[in-house]
Amino acid sequence: MECYSLSARPFYNSVNQCYTKVLEIDRQPPNSALINKIIKQKTFHRLSPFDQYGICDKPKLCGYVVVNPNDLTQNATIDDIPMVFTWLMQNGYVVNTAITDMMNGSSVKTSNPLLCVITSTG
């Protein structure tokens, strides 16, 4: 069983010149995973020229973004969560509420808000 986290991450859309919150998965799944159909690798640029990385910071300049299952050319945003969850459940993934609740209730916080933890059944 594989376990992934989905987070809301700010993303600058240079075409429309606006910021959106996209759905990011924590890592690329194995090549055989069905979820790869709705994931694309993206470059995340600094949101501000004043953002400076400290010596202990680990900047994450690339990431894996979930795309809209109905329009694979568009990044999925937080407004697309119901559509993404529907696709995930129809394709053998489970939103693991127990792990999600545990993580959201703990004092451990990730750099971007955790939306949920998903698991694959196969």
Q: Layout of helices and strands, plus pairs?
A:
Layout: E1 3-13, E2 18-25, E3 39-43, E4 62-68, E5 71-75, H1 81-90, E6 93-95, H2 97-105, E7 114-120
Antiparallel strand pairs: 1-2, 1-7, 2-4, 3-4, 4-5, 6-7
Q: How would you summarize this macromolecular structure in one to three sentences?
A:
This protein is α+β, with helices and mostly antiparallel strands. The protein contains two helices and seven strands; from the N terminus they run βββββαβαβ.
**SSE order, as H and E?**
EEEEEHEHE
Q: Which structural class fits the helix and strand makeup?
A: alpha+beta
Q: How many strand elements? A: 7
Strand count, sense and closure of the main sheet?
7 strands, antiparallel
Keywords:
seven-stranded antiparallel β-sheet; globular; 7 strands; 2 helices; 122 residues; alpha+beta
Can you describe what's shown?
The chain is of the alpha+beta class. The protein has one domain (3-120). 16% of the residues lie in helices and 38% in strands. The protein is built from two helices and seven strands; from the N terminus they run E-E-E-E-E-H-E-H-E. Strands 1, 2, 3, 4, 5, 6 and 7 form a seven-stranded antiparallel beta sheet that branches.
